[in-house]
């Protein structure tokens, strides 16, 4: 082994050191490698920073660990404990080996299992940097020190982000608990800690650490009794409501994790109105401060409708991925055309994985709530900025108009280098209305739709509610919600709206639309009389008109009438966005006296009285439809319910318990050895119960 001495410090050539294992080793009959030329009088560690060297002495083990950890942070790597050595006499600790966290190599198993998740990147690459200490009397002495690494070292600033140097301090835990109890999401808690520490690099932990801390805390608080009550509720709901499905994640230690549930009415409603879904993590939760996640949409009465919900332990991409997959299976695999969420990286990652063909739209309202925070200096200095910014975002009709006004606004207010504006601009296709007018959103542009649902639940649920009580109160709120839908059905069928125009089509659509839908159409029809139009040109047999409010020249909308007069298009894209013809198109159709002939093509069934007339196979909802083909999730939970009853019976005596175990093992062997096609020919034999 080659050694180089400099100022009584031995630096060992790492290329000639043997690679040790990575497991904890106790009572090894080996000697710690020492240098025979240790200094006669080892240097003592002072209170000031000291770089490790062979012969350095410490009063206790904690000082030694702290010294090497401080050194690693300043140098640009992190450490871990690799080996320990115990005394053969009294099993006391007499030696410890600290190594670089990139020491060793990943283990490869001979039996390869199919991976559910992508394999994580390699971190261990055989680095031999290390420090070994041994006990000598009452002192601890550095007996071996390898300085060289086989990888690039980080800057001291970046080293603070390595796992070995991250820690949530007690003071930070208190602040995190306070913010969490106040309903602050984890992604914003990190921002608060960053400001408190004067920068992200000074926090000492990352967002993942906060999520892990809160998740662990919630699992600890979620008592066994409460979790059992929740599970019992799910079993009873499944028994009494064939369309009810649920799913619970369980940790390796048996603690309850994320849980999802949805009743048959909501599953059936999704089949009618699931083209557009809003997904929102709110903080109307329970005594454990678990986020209450809502899948919502809009029914034919323009009323919020539930498509399922969940209680989450944490808000990681892994939790959201599990939730989206579970929810999609409960909805018979039908994906929404559009999903609207808040601006969250973990949610975006999960949607990209589970719903790659769904248009992901960001809530523009939540996004623009941050404008004053990031552009306060502009708001205070230029009063006109708010009006210009609003016009650029909400009043531009085409992509070209938006891009032009955006560029002019940046130049006018000298915001070309503003990092926040640059960031939201890169994602403009997900939130700027000009880019999204042609995408059907059922009139929903924000997650406020689900927030209104959240406010609705406040009448039934309080922040101190136990989880088991929470789901029961949720049921009551859902029953009240569907009662309102029935009341709207009755109102539509038993009353007649007042007509406001002389158009015959107004009376016709009043018989088709729900009352709320009719009022939206009626407003457009009535206002169409206030516009004027002029023909501008013809293109490929299509006639194009310029429509403006009578007496004004702007805003101007282009309405295109098809060659055979069976289709109409307006640049405001109201029909494409919400599903109702706009006042500009209705003005042209009225002038051409073709409103009656064309309108039937522009009445969407989802807005009509008969929107739920179609029979949905596979779900038993509130209309009493029979579930003809049970899903895998439904079959799994039916089996779980039966196994739960068997477990209760089998736990009454040791004889019953052993009998159940034999029966389960027999069933398992049968299922492993037969195919679905010939499983009916196999029988399971078991002995009679011997009590």
Automatic annotation (TrEMBL):
Occurrences of domain SWIM-type (ranges): 557-593
One Gene Ontology cellular component: nucleus
GO biological process entries: regulation of DNA-templated transcription
MF (Gene Ontology): zinc ion binding
Record-linked Pfam families: FAR1, MULE, SWIM
Superkingdom in the source lineage: Eukaryota
Matches recorded under InterPro entries: FAR1_DNA_bnd_dom (IPR004330), FHY3/FAR1 (IPR031052), MULE_transposase_dom (IPR018289), Znf_PMZ (IPR006564), Znf_SWIM (IPR007527)
Keyword Metal-binding belongs to the record: yes
Compartments (UniProt record): Nucleus
Record keywords: Metal-binding, Nucleus, Zinc, Zinc-finger
Function recorded in the entry: Putative transcription activator involved in regulating light control of development.
Stated family: Belongs to the FHY3/FAR1 family.
Protein name listed in UniProt: Protein FAR1-RELATED SEQUENCE
Native species: Carya illinoinensis
Source organism phylogeny: Eukaryota, Viridiplantae, Streptophyta, Embryophyta, Tracheophyta
